[in-house]
Backbone:
């Protein structure tokens, strides 16, 4: 590890091998994009991240837009993490943007970045002073009706929330069926990119992880195979002999995403 990397305060992901890939963890205060297709392990990774913070006496905020609060609590319990206790001890807030209710204190009644930021800051004040881990799972929900706004919304969320002593994971979906660039907005503004991938070989689903970018970090550039194990969560199996292109999106889909990204940036006047 370089001298510069060693001096940076880092936040453990809760998965020792991934910390090793990151030269010790994610630099504190970073906003990191966690991207990939559905079912690749993004949410489980985020659960590890928040659970590790609670273990270390930190606070956690988990914004869920595609699953209910109860689903996140149950998933965490499957891997040995007691999120319900974290809520009861006022160390964790789960903001539910799926099962919206005017009566529930931690919910989003509208999927817009302004309300998201307001609710997260409210949760941060409720939890009190100290380092906090924030998960937004997923960001894609905030621009489903306007993909061209992805980059602008992502920048606004990062700019405001980075002032509140939070290390942030922002997930974003890719789907083989999409023709829009749902992930590019987050990736443009993120301090790091952790990519999850999958493939089917011999009729068996395989999952992979790669650190594609992490500022201030001499990170591992290899792709690793992972598994999701009941009672443990994400287990890193080891480096894979597969190439990045072996588990990438089909070329036609990639080309559509790139064209959509370029079109969106032209519409918003964001292109260089």
Residues:
């Amino acid at each position: 590890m370089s001298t510069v990397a060693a001096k940076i305060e880092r936040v453990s992901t809760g998965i020792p091998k991934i910390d090793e890939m990151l030269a010790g963890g994610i630099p504190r205060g970073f906003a990191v994009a966690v991207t990939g297709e559905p079912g690749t392990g993004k949410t489980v990774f985020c659960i590890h991240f928040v659970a590790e913070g609670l273990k270390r006496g930190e606070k956690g905020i988990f914004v869920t837009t595609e699953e209910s609060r109860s689903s996140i609590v149950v998933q965490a319990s499957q891997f040995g993490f007691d999120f319900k206790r974290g809520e009861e001890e006022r160390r964790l807030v789960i903001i539910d943007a799926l099962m919206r209710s005017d009566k529930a204190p931690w919910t989003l009644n509208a999927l817009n970045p302004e309300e998201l930021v307001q609710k997260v800051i409210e949760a941060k004040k409720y939890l009190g002073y100290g380092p906090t881990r924030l998960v937004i799972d997923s960001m894609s929900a905030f621009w489903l009706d306007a993909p061209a706004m992805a980059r602008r919304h992502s920048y606004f969320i990062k700019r405001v929330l980075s002032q509140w002593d939070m290390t942030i994971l922002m997930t974003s979906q890719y789907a083989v069926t999409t023709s829009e660039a749902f992930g590019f907005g987050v990736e443009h503004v993120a301090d790091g990119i952790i990519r999850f991938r999958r493939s089917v070989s011999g009729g068996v689903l395989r999952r992979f992880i790669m650190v594609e970018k992490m500022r201030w970090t001499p990170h591992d550039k290899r792709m690793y195979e992972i598994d999701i194990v009941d009672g443990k969560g994400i287990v890193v199996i080891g480096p894979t002999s597969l190439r990045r292109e072996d588990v990438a999106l089909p070329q036609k889909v990639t080309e559509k995403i790139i064209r959509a990204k370029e079109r969106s940036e032209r519409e918003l006047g964001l292109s260089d």
Summary: Residues 3-268 form a domain with the Rossmann fold fold (CATH 3.40.50.300). The radius of gyration is 18 Å.
